[in-house]
Amino acid sequence: MADLRDACQVEELLSAYLDGELRPGELQAVVEHVETCLDCIAEFRNLKEARTAVRLLPTLQVPDNLIPFAHYGEDLSAYLDGELNTQEQRIIGSHVVTCEDCRRELQDLDLARTAVRALPGVELPELNWNHEDHLAARRRTRTRRVVAGGVSAAAVAALVLGLAAGRDESTPIDLDTIADRHIARASLEAGFSVIPTGFSSRVEP
Amino acid sequence: MTRTVRGAFVVAVAGLASIASIPVALAFDLEDYLEAAAEADYAGSQVVIARWDGESLVAVIEVEHAGSLTMLQGGRVVDAGKVFADGSAGSIVVSAWKRYASDRYSASDPVAARRLGRDAESVAILEDDGAVRAKIVFDEETGAALTTEIYDGDGRLFRLSTMMQFDSTPWKAYAIDKSDEGISDVLLSIDTTKLPDDAAGYRLADMYSGPDDVVQAFYTDGLFSFSLFELERQAEQFEDAVGFEIDGRDYKRLATATDVWVSWQAGGSTYLLVGDLPPDHLEEVLVELPQPSALNIFRRFWRGIFG
Predict the structure, then answer these.
(1) In A18-143, which ranges are E strands?
(2) Most confident of B45-49, B81-85, B192-196, B237-241
(3) Is any Cβ of chain A less than 8 angstroms from the Cβ of B283?
């Protein structure tokens, strides 16, 4: 086993051992060597303690002012998609306010996303097709054809009666956010200080 | 609205009738008054009364102003382009904006006045056609607006706000923890728009997109302002809204003492207007914004029979 140390391979192999990356032959060699070599046992313990200490280090967020050219390129997309955790969202939100480059990049990203959304939708082909699903789908289609006739007649009747003003499926609007967005921009206007504002009053009787 | 509220409106209007005799002359710069009011330090409790279609709406608002901060009831702290929902955690920040210099309004010569035992100046705000659109009593010491009257297109008092209590020093020291500005939404400026640059004298100053994909267009005429929110989907409109028509087109309105909300559907989108503009301005603005489809013959027939 001394040849392992002589070849200066032990430290590397111990590191690989701790990472669970050794091949079976290498694993056997390292285990046998470590059992008999006091230096390697000490080395192994030091290595293990060092790794544990590194893992226990707190995650530090380096302030922007210490990294003058720090930007959040890839994270900006995640920021727009709402995929960041709260802390990351706040960090990038604060950074964007002060960093013109990132703000511009964020605006470009947002425009691109808006443009993509405006593209006509493409229906993806169904994958994982199986026979049972296919039969069930055919049964549903037949049923739909029968129901469709009845529904069409009812729809025509509703139109004739002038009751066809039905609403599409809708989603609620967050009025508090809307109010905050308006106040945020209106507060930059000269009239804000003389025209009373008090959106909370809208819920009062 | 209750009889008590109507009574309060009448009393308040009668009590302030003396302000109506302000001489009309175009001499003073309105901007100077507005800037002084924006920099004023004060705390107060104000009553706001507005009339929409004969109904009176009342709100009592506690407001404090210190430096650039405006503290409103409900926990909002406003700091020139930022709204902090609870005074500590950041909420919404405007990333960029353009200042629109309007010449739609001018101020008359100030007239000495007294309000709440304080020396004040009363100023009439005149629209470009010479009509009095507002009268404001400014506190001499602080520059704060002690009383604001807004008139509609027929010269009738539409909204009145007046301080019931006023202190030239803020009551509480509000402070935003700048080290933890938890910004949740940044309003990003965008340029692309199909909305008009001008709507009945209101200029499109800025457009923003938000993380919720709701486009916000901000319009101002130099005194009043509104935001037009465009949602490219059908959206539930607010409850308790009053339906109304302009040129046979359907809108829904929710008015408060301080603001008006109007929603409508047009071209598959939902529009929501939020602002402080008076009723005649609102009507003129709506016809110049994307309009809802006119009622079809069946709905006209149905409405004609059943209302």
Answers:
(1) none
(2) B45-49
(3) no
Looking at chain A, which residue has its C-alpha nearest residue B95?
A97
Q: Count structural domains, chain A.
A: 2
* A87, A188, A203: best to mutate for the B interface, most B CBs within 10 A: A188
Which of the residue ranges A8-17, A90-99, A126-135, B171-180 would you say has the lowest mean pLDDT?
A126-135
Q: Which residues of A touch B225 (CB under 8 A)?
A: 185-186, 189, 191-192
A173: chain B residues, CB-CB within 8 Å: 231, 235-238, 270, 272
Task: Estimate the crossing angle of helix A38-56 against helix A24-36, to 10 degrees.
Answer: 110
Nearest CA to A55 out of A90, A20, A18, A24 is that of: A18
Q: Helix H segments across B194-247?
A: none
Distances, alpha carbon A76 to alpha carbons A83, B105, B279, in Å: 10, 42, 42
User: What mean pLDDT do residues A40-45 have?
Assistant: 76
If you write DSSP's letter for every residue of A116-164 in order, what string do you get?
HHHSPP-PPPP-S--HHHHHHHHHHHHHHHHHHHHHHHHHHHHHHTT--
CA distance A139 to chain B (A): 33
Look at residue A186 and tell me whether its pLDDT is greater than 60: yes
Kindly tell me if the per-residue pLDDT of B187 is higher than 70: yes
Q: Please report where in the chains the tokens 């001394």 appear, as a residue.
A: A2
Domain termination site, one of A72, A91, A117: A117
Structural domain including A100 reads: 64-117
C-alpha separations of B190 from A71, A103, B93, B170, B216 in Å: 21, 11, 15, 37, 9
Cβ–Cβ pairs < 8 A, chains A and B: 230
Domains and CATH numbers, chain B: 3-68+97-167 (2.50.20), 190-297 (3.30.200.100)
Q: What is the mean pLDDT of chain A?
A: 62
CB B262 within 8 A of CB B287: no
Work out the average pLDDT over B166-189: 68
ipTM above 0.90, yes or no: no
Inter-chain residue contact A178 with B256, CB threshold 8 Å = no
Nearest CA-CA partner of B207 in A14, A167, A78, A181: A181
